[in-house]
Specification:
Length: about 325
C-alpha cells in the first residue's frame, strides 16, 4: 500500500484564485456542502465493490460504474446550490470500455475547476485476479471472448496513467473483505472511532506463501507437529486433540506464557497511537494444525476481554494434509 499524491482543496483554490472570473463550479465551491469526493478505480476483480460498500456504510453517496465523461456532470450537481451531498464515492473502471481512457483528462478538468478529490486505486496480483474470475465465472470486461489473462494485460496498460495519479494504491491480494474495509478505514475514513482497536488474527502455512500485510508475524514451526501422527493428520487446529498434542510437553503453554504478556503490552500501545486495525499472523508449515489452534486461542482470549474487535481467519486450513 502506498500514498502517491495527496490532493488538497486549499491548494487548488489558491491556484484558481488568480482567475478574475470563477466558473459556476468554482463559485459553487464556496457554498457547497461537499467535503470529500473519492474516485475508486483499479483492476477488475480487485475489490472495488467491497470498497464502495465500505464508503456507503460510512454515509457516502455512492455511484457505481460511472463513465468518466459523466464524472464532471455529477461533480457539478454536487456543487450546485442546495445540494446536501457532503461526501461522495464514485466507481469508474474498465467496464466503461473505450470511454475509460478519458479518465485522466477528467481528473485534469476537475483540478482546473478547483474540485477537491481523492483517487483510490485497487490492485491485486494476476493469480488472485484470475482466481476471483474463476470463482464468479464472470467474463473480463476487456476480454469478453478471450482469456482472463488477456483482459488483465490490456487493463494494466489502460490503467497505468490513472495509477500514477492515485492518492492511495491498495494491494488487495490475500485480504478478506473485512481486512480490506479496515485498511480503507485506516487510510481514507478518519471518521471511524479509533478508540476500539480491530484485531485480525490470521493463521497461514509458510509452504503456501507468506502472510501479506501482517503487522505482527509469529512463526510457530518449532512446536510439535501433529501432521506426523496418523490419527491427527486429517484433523485441524479446531480439534482439541490437536492443541493437546502440540502442548504435549508443555511447549505451547510456555509459548503463551511469553506471547500473551507481549500482546497485552502492545495492543494498548497501538490504541494509544491511534491505530484502528492490527493484523496478527500465525504461521506453521501447512496452515492446518498449529497455527489454527493458536489463532483460535488468541481470538478467544482477547474477544473475552471485550476491549477489541476480534476477527479470526484461516487462510490455508482447507488445503491438503501434506504438512501440519
Amino acid at each position: 500500500m502506498s500514498v502517491s499524491r495527496p490532493t488538497r482543496l486549499g491548494d487548488r483554490l489558491r491556484r484558481g484564485s488568480r482567475r478574475t472570473e470563477l466558473t459556476p463550479v468554482q463559485a459553487g465551491l464556496r457554498s457547497s456542502a461537499l467535503t470529500d469526493l473519492v474516485l475508486i478505480t483499479g483492476f477488475s476483480g480487485a475489490g472495488k465493490s467491497t470498497a464502495m460498500a465500505a464508503f456507503e456504510d460510512e454515509g457516502y453517496f455512492c455511484v457505481d460504474n460511472l463513465p468518466p465523461e459523466m464524472i464532471r456532470s455529477l461533480a457539478e450537481l454536487f456543487m450546485h446550490e442546495g445540494s446536501k451531498v457532503e461526501r461522495a464515492a464514485i466507481v469508474s473502471d474498465a467496464r466503461g470500455g473505450s470511454y475509460f481512457a478519458g479518465l485522466a483528462a477528467v481528473l485534469d478538468e476537475l483540478e482546473r475547476l478547483g474540485v477537491s478529490y481523492r483517487v483510490l486505486f485497487l490492485e491485486a496480483d494476476e493469480q488472485t485476479l484470475q482466481t476471483r474470475y474463476k470463482e464468479t465465472r464472470r467474463r473480463h470486461p476487456l476480454a469478453p471472448g478471450g482469456s482472463v489473462a488477456d483482459g488483465i494485460a490490456r487493463e494494466r496498460a489502460l490503467l497505468a496513467p490513472v495509477r500514477e495519479r492515485a492518492d492511495l494504491v491498495l494491494e488487495t491480494t490475500g485480504l478478506t473483505a473485512a481486512m480490506m474495509r479496515r485498511k480503507l478505514a485506516d487510510a481514507l475514513l478518519p471518521t471511524r472511532n479509533p478508540g476500539r482497536l480491530a484485531v485480525t488474527i490470521q493463521s497461514f502455512g509458510f509452504k503456501h506463501g507468506p502472510a501479506r500485510d501482517a503487522d505482527l508475524l509469529f512463526d510457530v514451526r518449532f512446536l510439535p507437529n501433529p501432521h506426523y501422527e496418523a490419527d491427527l493428520r486429517p484433523l485441524t487446529g479446531h480439534d482439541p486433540d490437536v492443541a493437546a498434542y502440540v502442548n504435549r510437553d508443555g511447549a505451547l503453554d510456555a509459548f503463551y506464557d511469553r506471547l500473551n504478556p507481549m500482546l497485552d503490552y502492545l495492543l494498548p500501545q497501538y490504541v494509544a497511537e491511534g491505530k484502528s486495525h492490527l493484523s496478527i499472523a500465525i504461521g506453521c508449515t501447512g496452515g492446518r494444525h498449529r497455527s489454527v489452534a493458536i489463532a483460535e486461542a488468541l481470538a478467544a482470549r482477547y474477544a473475552e476481554q471485550g476491549d477489541y474487535l476480534i476477527e479470526v481467519t484461516h487462510r490455508d486450513v482447507e488445503r491438503g494434509t501434506r504438512s501440519g
